[in-house]
# Entry
Amino acid sequence: MTMAQHMAQRGAVIAFSLLLGLANGLYGLPDVDVTGKLNVGILIMPGVFISEATAPFDMYKHVGGNNTMNVYFVADTMDPVYTYYGARLKPDYTFSNAPAPDVLVVPSGIGSHHSFLTAWYGGKTNADGTIQGATANDKPVTYYGNMTNLIAWVKTSAAAAQIVTSHCWGAFTLADAGVLDGKAATTFPGYTDTLKKYYPSIGSVVADKRWVVDGKVMTSNGAVAAFEACLAVIRHLYGELAASVVASGLVLSTENVGHSMDQYFRPSPAAGKNEAISATKVGILLLEGVFISEPTAPFDVFAHLGADLDVYFVGETSDAVKTYYGATMYPDYTIKDAPQPDILVVPSAGRSMTTDREKTDVVAWIRSSAAKATWVTSHCWGAFMLCQAGLCDKKAVTTFPGYYKELSEAFPKIGSVIKDNRIVKDGNLVTSNGGVAAYEAANYVVMKHFGVNRAKTVATGLVFSADNYQAMVSAHDAQYVPTPTSSAVARSVALVVVPLVSNLLMAALA
# Structure
């Protein structure tokens, strides 16, 4: 199946679900007319945590391709916005010209509350009373509550929007705008008491839910839980069929889907004492048409380890890169001047299976970087690029579910293509299904390279579900394959059945 066929069939499934009229008022959110295109406005601000913005972008863009939801980033100016760990995102609009959002998304950042800035991010009080800290690469970040244009836009947009959402500490910004007065809400785990302390007008703060709905307002724990909360919104708006296709496309785990239905509360296990780490370089390939979660997931995972990790994007050139669904990102280096990575990451792009494989300079860079790297990784269709560089010969690998045959046929020298695991390791080669599994696989490398407690700390920081962490523990290791447990068998069945059902539905509509 070609990329165009894949996306066309996905769009057909979504269109079919829309014809069924499946907006249904689940979770207490209000009914929304979905016969037209909905605007989804995602706030991005200096010091934003990258996954809080890119996870909702990717989830909502996966709904019927570009045909159902108009998803865009909004900032104070049109200048590139520096996220906390240094990656840059380009706004599509400013507060003064952004379309009014039907769905408002407020992510988390280091400026979400003044106490965070002053405690951890070098925050100082300026002469005018504003509080300012800095990103990891020393870019200024003002407390968002001091940014009058930002708070005014959030307040106005929230009043007009049909659904208002926040992720992680984004709840603090909603509270600063008065949106949470009298409402039940949640935030990043461990900060519920802080939210209630500073904003006593909030009705109640919930500590044992991944997301909470009160009227038209939804708040979530953030990071991986943001995928779950967005899936709940998608299911509410477009029905179960549309939600299933998006969950399959972004490789959500069984518990991610269960959390999106509020079936239980299963967080990742807590860490013990962190192991020592040493300076490590992580180079992430950034090609035109990349699927945004594929580079941002490993970026966020590795950057969470702190200043000892130098995590950077590598472009074919120094030009800005347009992702598959239209977001703009920026490389830090090119393939001609990038530092040698200790950990090489090759994400998936729209042309990974086709014309990207013909980019001889890129393939040569992958091959030469891999020769000296400690770990070589890919996500989703990024495996096609690794194999093009000759790195999969006689190796066990995986790719995006449903494309195993294409990978095997394109590269007959592969040792085996593993179909029943989200993460596959063979020597220093680690491949994943992509999507949410890219978070898991990157953190699997953290576990192998830096230690179990470091991986548990990252999993907690990125709000993994228990089975997101278990996917790491249960990764397929070509040198050690344990006897499957009942839970592993159940997970394997789910990996096969969910894509199968989706493919059958697509075939029926083809």
